[in-house]
Design a protein that fits this description.
Structural class of chain A: mainly alpha
Helix content of chain A: over 70%
Strand order of the largest sheet of chain B: 1-2
Largest sheet of chain A: none
CATH class of chain A: Mainly Alpha
Oligomer: heterodimer
Shape of chain A: flat
Bound molecules: protoporphyrin IX containing FE, copper (II) ion
Largest interface: A-B, 44 and 66 residues
Distance between the termini of chain B: 14 Å
CATH topology of chain A: Four Helix Bundle (Hemerythrin (Met), subunit A)
Radius of gyration of chain B: 24 Å
Radius of gyration of chain A: 22 Å
Order of helices and strands of chain A: HHHHHHHH
Strand content of chain B: under 5%
Strand content of chain A: under 5%
Structural class of chain B: mainly alpha
Largest sheet of chain B: 2 strands, antiparallel
Helix content of chain B: 55-70%
Shape of chain B: globular
Number of domains of chain A: 1
């Protein structure tokens, strides 16, 4: 659908007949709904990023990473979590493929693996929280720490929300009867997971950025 | 979308039919009644404020703290919990599926959830009246640092409940918005192209897109402020000495909050305005028996306003201490957005021009909307200029401006819409004489309230002040004017109960309505039953052959042609071929 062509329609004239299968050719409503949800979440996390960059320019900011004694002196645990989330994304993509091919055994295995890796990611994030708390970096210690807790919690909450959707899809996948809408459900789950992986990579990059990088980013965005 | 006729089972028990309902029409009514209920609270609060301003000191229970709480709760309730909820959740829910020819929203369960989450947000908000310290008195803009510091009323509980309620509301609005947008895009019936949609649907659709993209900014601001309040972080809070004590905050940026708030706040104005634009366009066209002037231009203007509304936000911040060069940019964009807005006004007037104007109650309200909107819009142009805004900022001139443009105008559109669609919703007409009385008192009354406020603003009367004694620059006569405004406000408020009475009384005793009492073209008036039953369309979905504005077509039998009627003698290959395809 070409937006500009649509907007140039002259609806007061008699118009060419729409194809009889017009409705069938439309994208499934669930996919459109999820895409708009992702648009809204993109706005949400982008605005957090802007707030992060603006706040990071103020003098009391202490970078999280980049140096001994910093809360994120070692990024290794976060990289491990990233690997878990990427695994979840890949396995769900595989699940989507199996669903389309109708291979229900493989589908169930991949779905389960996807959810378990997501849970592992969440557990890993909780572990990083514990480490920070053990080192005395609390939520109000420094604005960078505040953002760390806030953004990881929010991202985790969205992943948890995804798991609720996953339960819905999985219940159908474990039913014996064939289900025409199952493949769509699995595909949308996978899509949502990819999105959250992308968000995480973005958040991770911001949180782990060196002060100089943040200055540079803020300059590009005209925030400095 | 003909496939789903059989998947819609009519719910059978009372509970699933009226309470846990997934039917868009029931949800629309639930949204509307809840919004009206909380809106009445907002109305009562405004009268309490007016009592203090008109007759200062006469009412012991209104002290300065209470006044601030009333201001804050009144503003927030009116903008978010009344107007946004009623226009999107009420009108959007009722009209979108009916106007595009769908059986329901595409995600009925989510739709039901949206209402219950909205109700929860309202209850949390109302709860803040009953907690220790009462609701927050920070002003509806909730600016930090004062919003969470002692000295502002309601800093213990009130502000926390307010922020929590807003976050919950955003969740509800997102669930609703996803439904409205997706239903418009994916569930239109056969022949209903985007450019054949009535402007009401265009307005609500674009407003829903704005809501999906703008509410996140309020969410971000709200979450960070909650943490500043509850966890002692310093997102927005600078180092500060409060009541002789140094607080733990350090280095935060109050200006950051203002940017986030208005990045949401300005699109919010259009979330309220665009549905009102759409409704008024349809009312004017129907009741003037004339096609809407410049339909395409109207659609383009809606889309353009929607886009531009994201780049004007800092015109609310000319006096905030932000980089003064920003002022040039935001003043310019503000003046640019006036262009598509003005186009809409011209087109309404040109639609009326030589129309066969029926001064029905909905039409009266639609014309009232145009008058109020023009007045508020023009003062907006003044305020959009930095050099004019600076002296007028935070005076009653601003109060008059925004009440006209986004308070009174959308309310008039809502009233017009209710008088117009009530026969479809209930199968009965609202009482005409009560309606006229309600219109004239509301319309003239709001002018009596707000017109003098412009003058008070020029005098320099500051907004959000509890009392105005001993200000040398304010003459005594201003007090008489304030007393007059208060009396008018009380009268206007009292007459809203007449409207409520009409709503309830007519539901049982009103004159029975035909299925299409106004002779309108759009699909909702062509349903097989009135009020429409579950599934809306009986056996077969309607098929659309024409746009929504074929009024007074030369040579036609009647002065309107429903969208479902094929063109006569249309060239081959056009969608008239569909006429045969109709079952
Ligand atoms: C008869 C109806 C109304 C009356 C008498 C009324 C009166 C008032 C008064 C007296 C104030 C406080 C002025 C001050 O001290 O600064 C106020 C503020 C406000 N009103 Fe209304 N109002 C009415 C309807 C509405 C409606 C329909 C809206 C919807 C947009 C609205 C939105 C606001 C807002 C946003 C504020 C600013 C609150 C703040 O300063 O934090 N009002 N109104
Ligand atoms: Cu604005």
């Amino acid at each position: 659908m070409n937006l500009f062509a649509t907007l140039a329609d002259k609806p007061w004239l008699a118009q060419p007949a729409p194809p009889p299968d017009e409705a069938a050719r439309r994208m499934p409503a669930a996919r459109v709904g999820v895409l708009w949800l992702l648009a809204s979440l993109t706005a949400l996390f982008s605005l957090f990023a802007v707030a992060f960059l603006i706040r990071a320019q103020l003098p009391d900011w202490e970078a999280l990473a980049g140096g001994a004694g910093r809360p994120l002196a070692s990024l290794a645990p976060l990289w491990v979590n990233t690997a878990w989330l990427a695994t979840a994304s890949v396995t769900l993509q595989a699940a989507s493929l199996f669903a389309r091919r109708g291979r229900s055994g493989a589908l169930r295995a991949a779905l389960a693996a996807g959810a378990l890796s997501a849970l592992a990611f969440l557990a890993g994030q909780a572990l990083v929280w514990q480490q920070l708390i053990a080192q005395g970096h609390f939520i109000a210690t420094n604005p960078s720490a505040s953002f760390f807790y806030l953004l990881t919690a929010l991202h985790g909450a969205h992943l948890a929300g995804g798991l609720v959707a996953w339960v819905h899809v999985a219940r159908r996948a474990w039913r014996p009867a064939a289900d025409a809408r199952l493949a769509l459900g699995v595909a949308l789950c996978a899509l949502y997971w990819h999105f959250l992986l992308a968000v995480w990579l973005f958040v991770f990059a911001l949180l782990a950025a060196e002060p100089a990088t943040l200055v540079w980013l803020a300059e590009i965005c005209g925030l400095r | 979308m003909t496939h789903d006729a059989d998947t819609h089972h009519e719910p059978s028990s009372f509970w699933t039919r009226y309470v846990w309902s997934q039917d868009h029409k029931v949800i629309a009514i639930q949204y509307t009644l809840t919004a009206i209920a909380i809106g009445l609270v907002g109305l009562v609060l405004s009268n309490l404020m007016r009592l203090q301003l008109g007759f200062p000191g006469r009412f012991d229970f209104i002290d300065a703290a209470a006044y601030y709480q009333y201001v804050t709760m009144h503003g927030m309730i009116m903008v978010i919990y009344l107007l946004t909820a009623l226009l999107l959740g009420g009108f959007g829910n009722y009209l979108i599926p009916l106007m595009v020819g769908a059986r329901d929203m595409v995600f009925p369960y989510l739709n039901m959830l949206s209402f219950w989450v909205y109700l929860l947000a309202v209850l949390v908000l109302v709860a803040s009246f009953f907690v220790p310290g009462g609701p927050t008195g920070a002003g509806w803009t909730l600016y930090p640092p004062q919003a969470i510091l002692p000295g502002t009323p309601g800093t213990d509980w009130g502000i926390v409940l307010m922020l929590a309620s807003l976050v919950i509301f955003i969740v509800a609005a997102t669930m609703g918005g996803l439904n409205y947008v997706t239903t418009v895009l994916q569930a239109r019936t056969r022949g209903m192209t985007l450019m054949r949609m009535p402007l009401t649907v265009w307005g609500i659709f674009t407003a829903s897109v704005l809501a999906l993209l703008a509410f996140p900014a309020l969410f971000v601001a709200g979450m960070m402020m909650l943490l500043d309040k509850l966890a002692g972080t310093s997102f927005f809070m600078p180092a500060i000495v409060s009541m002789g004590r140094e607080l733990g905050h350090e280095g935060g940026s109050p200006l950051l909050f203002q940017h986030l708030f208005w990045f949401f706040g300005h699109p919010e104005v259009y979330i309220v305005a665009l549905p009102a634009f759409g409704i008024v366009s349809d009312l004017i066209s129907t009741h003037a028996r004339k096609n809407i002037f410049g339909y395409r231009m109207m659609v383009w203007a809606i889309v353009a306003i929607g886009g531009l509304s994201f780049v004007v936000w800092a015109h609310h911040m000319y006096v905030s201490g932000m980089n003064p060069y920003f002022g040039y940019f935001f003043a310019t964009t503000t003046l640019i957005i006036a262009v598509p807005t003005a186009i809409k006004v011209y087109n309404w007037v040109l639609t009326l021009w030589r129309g066969n104007i029926h001064l029905t109650v909905p039409m009266l309200f639609a014309i009232g909307f145009i008058c109020s909107f023009v007045l508020g819009g023009i003062t907006g142009l003044f305020l959009g200029n930095v050099s004019v805004d600076i002296p007028l900022s935070d005076t009653y001139f601003v109060v008059a401006h925004f009440h006209m443009v986004m308070g009174v105008a959308p309310i008039l559109a809502i009233f017009g819409g209710i008088y117009h669609w009530y026969p479809k919703v209930t199968g009965r007409m609202l009482d005409e004489r009560l309606g006229r009385l309600h219109f004239w008192v509301t319309f003239l009354g709001t002018y009596a309230i707000y017109f003098p406020m412009h003058y008070l603003g020029f005098l320099g009367m500051p907004r959000r002040y509890y009392s105005f004694e001993d200000y040398a620059f304010i003459p005594d006569s201003a007090q008489d004017l304030n007393a007059f405004i208060t009396v008018c406000a009380l009268v206007v408020a009292a007459f809203q109960f007449l409207f409520l009475f009409n709503l309830v009384w007519s539901a049982f005793r009103g004159k029975p309505a035909e299925s299409n009492p106004w002779g309108a073209t759009t699909l909702e008036w062509q349903t097989p039953e009135t009020p429409p039953r579950h599934g809306n369309w009986g056996e077969a979905l309607p098929v659309v052959h024409r746009w929504a504005y074929d009024y007074s077509v030369p040579g036609a039998k009647r002065d309107f042609i429903p969208q479902t009627e094929p063109h006569e003698g249309a060239p081959p290959g056009t969608d008239e071929a569909l006429a045969e395809a109709r079952p």
